[in-house]
Specification:
The chain has 9 helices and 16 strands. The protein is α+β, with helices and mostly antiparallel strands. The strands form 4 sheets. It has a 7-stranded mixed beta sheet with strand order 3-4-7-11-10-9-8, with helices on both faces. Helix 2 crosses helix 3 and helix 6 packs antiparallel against helix 8. The longest helix is centred in the C-terminal third of the chain and has 22 residues. The relative contact order is 0.11.
Length: 333
């Protein structure tokens, strides 16, 4: 009910919405409407009661609140429900717990703060409150486990497009799972799955965004930034989440139908940060090679499987996500 009330009030703008209209639209009593509006006020939403006219939304708090995020999404959005936490160990861990218990596709876990966030290659980190976005979406795609890495790439496409739409700033993808603005990372994506040999039980797409962070530790300040620092504007975190989910749903449907990244190659390569630039391939993740082995080449883009095509002096290399790392010659990008 709170979701519906917020949606109606937001769409009405300066015009008051009568309590009777809300009652008739949703088949509830005036007392139910009043109770839900009172609870919204308790959560920081400034809702004015105008005598003989109804209710008007004056301002909204900068919080991550499930009904608020849901109210910004369309009925056909892939995200069907939002579970919000002020603090949690890891949204990916919580999403996997819910998925194991049968949670439906489209369940989104959002946290204002993580104490044990997950990164690529087992990295973990804690995060501050009220400035970032940490979220994990449960999906149950009818694709082979070998294709699941494509979820990371389409997530990056959706997020880059959402950042431009909501924040008005151009971002690029650092293959395979980071979003950068300029040459600094503002987002990481981690996809995990539960599967059998030829069947995926579920996958969890985890996204961590430096939205309104204003300062970074000295050891990463030259590599990390936030959308606010790069754009000069504070990010509406709830809106960015909602738009990302809307866009992801469109990419996801096409990806599952094609079970290939073929429909997205051109779009992805257009915003690939390293495209046509010299990169260094780091082989330290592979067990059967020298941990210090590196190779240089020109990044040309991705193929339909999501591999990064690198033109080296010894020929074309197809670099597979999860096996190696790719960096710029002198910088992170």
């Amino acid at each position: 009910m709170k979701k519906e009330i917020l949606k109606i009030l937001r769409e009405a703008g300066e015009n008051p919405v009568s309590g009777q209209m809300i009652c008739e639209k949703f088949g509830v009593t005036r007392q139910a409407v009043w109770k839900n509006i009172s609870q919204l006020k308790e959560n920081g939403y400034d809702i004015e009661s105008v005598s003989n006219k109804g209710y008007r939304l004056i301002s909204e708090p900068d919080i991550l609140y499930g009904p608020d995020i849901e109210s910004r999404m369309s009925e056909n959005c892939i995200c069907k429900s939002v579970e919000c936490h002020q603090s949690i160990d890891s949204t990916n861990t919580r999403a996997k717990q819910l998925a194991e218990s049968g949670a439906e596709e489209g369940t989104l876990i959002v946290a204002d703060r993580q104490t044990a966030g997950k990164g690529r290659r087992g990295r973990s980190w804690s995060s501050e409150s009220n400035i970032g976005i940490y979220m994990s979406l449960i999906v149950r795609p009818s694709i082979s486990p070998a294709s699941v890495s494509g979820l990371t790439l389409i997530s990056a496409l959706a997020l880059a497009k959402a950042i431009k739409s909501v924040c008005g700033v151009e971002s690029h993808i650092k293959w395979p799972n980071d979003i950068v603005i300029g040459k600094k990372k503002i987002c990481g994506i981690l996809t995990e799955m539960s599967s059998e040999m030829n069947y995926i039980h579920y996958a969890v797409v985890g996204i961590g965004i430096n939205a309104n962070t204003q300062k970074f530790p000295d050891d990463i300040a030259d590599k990390a930034s936030s959308i606010m620092l790069e754009s000069g504007k504070k990010v509406d975190r709830a809106e960015l989440i909602a738009v990302t989910m809307e866009l992801f749903g469109g990419y996801y449907q096409k990806f599952v139908e094609a079970e290939s990244l073929e429909p997205f190659i051109e779009e992805y390569n257009e915003i690939l940060a390293n495209r046509d630039k010299e990169v260094r391939i780091l082989y330290g993740m592979l067990e059967d090679v020298d941990k210090n082995k590196t190779e240089c080449g020109i990044a040309k883009g991705i193929d339909s499987d999501g591999a990064l095509i690198v033109e080296t002096s010894d020929g074309i290399r197809k670099v597979v996500s999860g096996e190696v790392s790719v960096r710029g010659i002198d910088d992170y990008v």
